[in-house]
Amino acid sequence: MTIAGLVLCVAGGVQAQDRVQVQGTSPDLYVLHTVKKGETLYSLGRSYSLSPKEIASENNISAEQGLQLGQSVKIPLNNTNFSQKTDAGGTPVYHKVEEKETLYRLSVNHNKVSLDNIRRWNNMTGDGLQKDGFVIVGYLKGTGIPASAPVASNPSTTPAPATHPVSTPPATTPTPTPSTPAPSTPVATTPAAGTTPAPPVAKPDQQAPPEPATTTPTPAPATNSGATKPAPAASAGSSFEQLYNQQTSNGKSVTAEKGPGGWFKSNASPGKYYALHNTAPRGTIIKVTNPLNGKFIYAKVLEAIPQIKQNEGLIIKLSDSALEALGTNEAKFYCQLNYEE
């Protein structure tokens, strides 16, 4: 079986032979390179933006010993040669989805990369993953390209997948193919992933205030939240509050729980909250209320709470950004939950 992590190195830089597939989990992430004719530790170092000594040390070989044709070399991924920032560019690095793997788990295993970045890079509109599918988790930098090129290459790398799928719908309007893709099918898909996530992460200081402003203040006047929230979330689909209303409407039974909650570190964009819960199915929207001050938020369930000692007795764990919205800074806090049974 061909290792997807194989990379063909050319004098100019790194070029993917198939897909560059990440191996391991953070903090030990790496890709495998199969040595081609004429390649040395120095040429690999130039291609992967690493020092020859670092590559040699990672593979327990000496600089004098050199490389053998066909040898599999471990190339570590670090801040020098691997980027997971919103504006990252270069050669995409893929993760092969495992059975029952969630987007949250994938993020944790790859340096807690932002969930919004993963959605944006892969043109995802939801959180569902397909077994054996490939998901971009970051970008490999190459020294053979000018420093500005990687940043510029990202925009063209992301839209590429978006324009291909769009060329199918334009069957009805062959001529306006370039202009139709944006307004017709992708309007709810591509723009969503490219417009909403990108700004919040790239410039948190500017974009963070707007979202929380619409999310946090809104809960107090429960009647106005429906009119205010949809604005920022419209491009990405229904807001969590709207989804909650849909899930609990039409006489559906709503479960109520009270007890201690905890939190976990997350890179979710401001104004979006996520939760770990033991009984609510993945994708369920839970309304979480702080009885001490009446503040509440809506959080989307990612997966179950890990069964470890520090989580004993917790009825929910929320992404850290939810704590400020609920008006608490306690490691454990009392809360009330409401969600579809």
Can you put this structure into words, describing what you see?
The protein has 341 residues and is α+β, with helices and mostly antiparallel strands. The protein has 2 domains: 1-169 and 177-205, no CATH class; 218-340, RlpA-like domain (Barwin-like endoglucanases, Beta Barrel), CATH 2.40.40.10. Helices cover 28% and strands 22% of the residues. The protein contains 14 helices and 14 strands. The strands form 4 sheets. The protein has a 6-stranded mixed β-barrel with strand order 9-13-10-12-11-14. Strand 11 (285-289) and strand 12 form a beta hairpin. Helix 1 packs across helix 2. It starts with 6 loop residues before the first strand and ends with a strand. Mean pLDDT is 72; it is low at 1-17 and 143-238. InterPro entries: LysM, LysM_dom_sf, RlpA-like_sf. It comes from Chitinophaga pinensis (strain ATCC 43595 / DSM 2588 / LMG 13176 / NBRC 15968 / NCIMB 11800 / UQM 2034).
Please tell me the overall pLDDT: 72
Structural class: alpha+beta
Termini separation (Å)? Answer: 45 Å
Rg, alpha carbons? 23 Å
Note the overall shape. elongated
- The topology string of helices and strands comes to EEEEHHEEEHHEHHHHHHHHHEEEEEHE
Q: Strand order within the widest sheet?
A: 9-13-10-12-11-14
Task: Tell me which oligomeric state these chains represent.
Answer: single chain
> What number of structural domains do the residues give?
2
Domain LysM: 31-75, 93-138
Organism: Chitinophaga pinensis (strain ATCC 43595 / DSM 2588 / LMG 13176 / NBRC 15968 / NCIMB 11800 / UQM 2034)
Pfam families: LysM (PF01476)
Biased composition (Low complexity): 150-166, 185-196, 213-223
